[in-house]
Specification:
single chain; alpha+beta; five-stranded antiparallel β-sheet; three-stranded antiparallel β-sheet; 8 strands
Length: 246
């Protein structure tokens, strides 16, 4: 991928993303706000200038010029995990239209079961030469967008297979917890996390992924997805349950 990742601009020419807020406070209901159609606890326009009209979504543009197709991981790291689903999605321009680019998307990328909002903290794509656009809806004032590039599988070298596999599985497990199905996630921060959600270790998505990552690390492989592993280990340590292994 060349020329780095460039942040797109909104239609007004301003940089997409966060700008200083005039006031962080939300006005209570009054006769004036009632006439303006503003509900109580709804962030008014003057107090929400950190958000773009489309809701604070950031767009990034990059070019991939590899001689061969490449497998790319796209991942969001958050300063705070408050159970509001996030999303990173990939798009291209086809016939002057913006269209989702889904080649190489991992099997858990599509919406499944009942989720609070559609989205994935982590996803994969297979890229060929061209220009791509990344849409980030982080629902947070701070995030990191990280990308990792791998040769396209299948692999003739076992070490490449282990590297791609361990990086994928730990990120996929972490991403599952960022948008837990069956009403596990929240839509707004005024909602409370369900106790069962806070205790959830998701059967397969937590301890199997953690075990795979730690097994690779024990055999000499470096942990590249440190933030994902840290979250999974903390979830397990805070919610001790009997092992499902015989």
């Amino acid at each position: 991928m060349t020329s780095g990742v460039r942040r797109m601009k909104s239609k007004s020419g301003r940089r997409s993303g966060l700008r200083p807020m005039i006031s962080p406070y939300i006005q209570a209901q009054s006769e004036e706000t009632a006439r303006q159609g503003i509900a109580p606890y709804q962030q008014i326009q003057d107090a929400a200038r950190d958000l773009l009209p489309e809701g604070g979504v950031d767009w990034f543009k990059f070019d991939y010029d590899g001689a061969q197709p490449g497998l790319v991981h796209f991942e969001l790291n958050l300063l705070e995990r408050d159970n509001i689903p996030v999303d990173v999605s990939i798009f291209t321009i086809v016939g002057n239209e913006v269209r989702p680019y889904e080649r190489g998307a991992d099997p858990v990328t599509p919406p499944h079961e009942v989720q609070a909002l559609p989205g994935n903290k982590f996803t994969t794509r297979i890229l060929t030469k061209g220009t791509y656009f990344v849409r980030v809806d982080a629902n947070h004032v701070f995030y990191q967008l990280k990308t990792s590039l791998y040769d396209l599988p299948p692999y003739n070298e076992p070490r490449k297979a282990v590297r791609a596999g361990m990086d994928y599985i730990v990120s996929a497990g972490d991403s599952w917890h960022a948008n837990i199905p069956r009403h596990g996630g929240l839509v707004t921060r005024v909602s409370s996390n369900h106790h069962e959600t806070m205790l959830c270790i998701a059967c397969h998505a937590t301890h199997f992924t953690t075990r795979a990552e730690l097994t690779a690390a024990r055999n000499g492989y470096q942990v590249n997805k440190r933030a994902s592993l840290d979250f999974l280990v903390e979830r397990l340590s805070n919610n001790p349950l009997p092992s499902v292994r015989p």
